[in-house]
Amino acid sequence: MKITVIGTGYVGLVTGTCFAEVGVDVTCIDIDQKKIENLNKGILPIYEPGLEEMVLRNTQKQRLHFSTSLIDSIKQVEVAFIAVGTPPDEDGSADLKYVLAVAASIGQHMIHPLVVVTKSTVPVTTAEKVRKAVQAELDKRGVKIDFYVASNPEFLKEGAAIDDFMKPDRIVVGTDRIEAEEIMRKLYKPFLMNGHPIIFMDIPSAEMTKYAANAMLATKISFMNDVANLCEIMGADVNMVRKGIGSDARIGTKFIYPGVGYGGSCFPKDVKALIKTAKEKNYNMRILNAVEEVNDSQKEVLFNKVKTHFKGNLKGKKFALWGLSFKPKTDDMREAPSLVIIEKLLSEGAEVVAYDPVAMHEAERMLGKTISYATDMYDSLNDADALLIVTEWPEFRVPDFDEINKRLKQKVLFDGRNIFDPQDMKKLGYSYYCIGIKTN
Questions:
Q1: pLDDT tens digits for 4-26?
Q2: CA–CA distance from 77 to each of 15, 19, 82, 183, 192 (Å)?
Q3: 299-433: same fold as 211-297?
Q4: Which of 75, 110, 116, 388 is buried deepest, with most CB atoms within 10 A?
Q5: Which fold has domain 299-433?
Q6: Which residues contact 60 (CB under 8 A, 6 or more apart)?
Q7: Active-site amino acid positions
């Protein structure tokens, strides 16, 4: 079976590579010539554990190809996945210009029936817009070629995307034609053999499922952060509360860890888009508005603790910051809490020296030389007034405190991910601040 995936960003590259891994002949398309040249050399535009090895293996097996030419690939395939970006507009709605441009291009160049699948996260009714865009181009050409539209939302966690695709909790496909269902079932057959469920539904329901899933997860995070802040005020321990409620099977343990807010490419964008979609239909998503408000304020919590500790005077102070990406195992810094914390520190006249295992190149692209970048986690501590932990990378969990003590000016640590035990930190002589536990 041959397919094409248009867009070699996070979703497109993972999707194309994983399909190639199970024997599908995949051509990934992108208009960025440099990106395609790099991919053909084995140089990836993103960091994702296990992805580089899988790309190299499947290009060597000639199951995975990279090209800038949609015209050549579209002539040979049964399925065309649209996996281009849908960045938020200023009003929070998803910008569909790239999706619809690809749909138009497919209509301009297709020569036989195929399934056009939206893999990008898109609002309800997008598939219908894709259908119209393809059909408009066919009409201009004066040709009649059958095609089918489907929605196949992705549910990939950055840092665990390979496992999520290869061993999915579920595969959701929205379509209104049995022909498309049969082709999509054939394509996903290798994944169904291990018992992973495929759920077919109407297209609007599939489009809504993606937004609803991300909005629910974002809600759990913001709810727990709100509870954490109340715990700290009341003298309760949020870690104990989390264990107490997480043992309830109806709630579960996932996404109830307190911290400095959610970020990344999905939750912020999708929550905004769902709020905007509802607003267009004169409906107010009251809970999601609150979720967004809590998350925005949560990104400032750690900074506020810093400012309180130093009695409002941060000018000339130097801070070591561990973790830049919005979560571990990725270099993605979109909507990362670190960006808000850094901006706040710099606005108060402070100096920031940051370290992240994989995201420093991306940070420098976004922040330039406004901060300094350390070569390793301990070098960032030299003569710093305090350490801030913003991302819970595994290597931060058991650090050498003797080394930390040698380099920090004073024993002050702001833990935005509750990595350490407050009692242990007290024994070590630290002024220790975390989320949802009153420590000072």
A1: 999 999 999 999 999 999 999 99
A2: 16, 14, 13, 12, 22
A3: no
A4: 388
A5: Rossmann fold (3.40.50)
A6: none
A7: 266
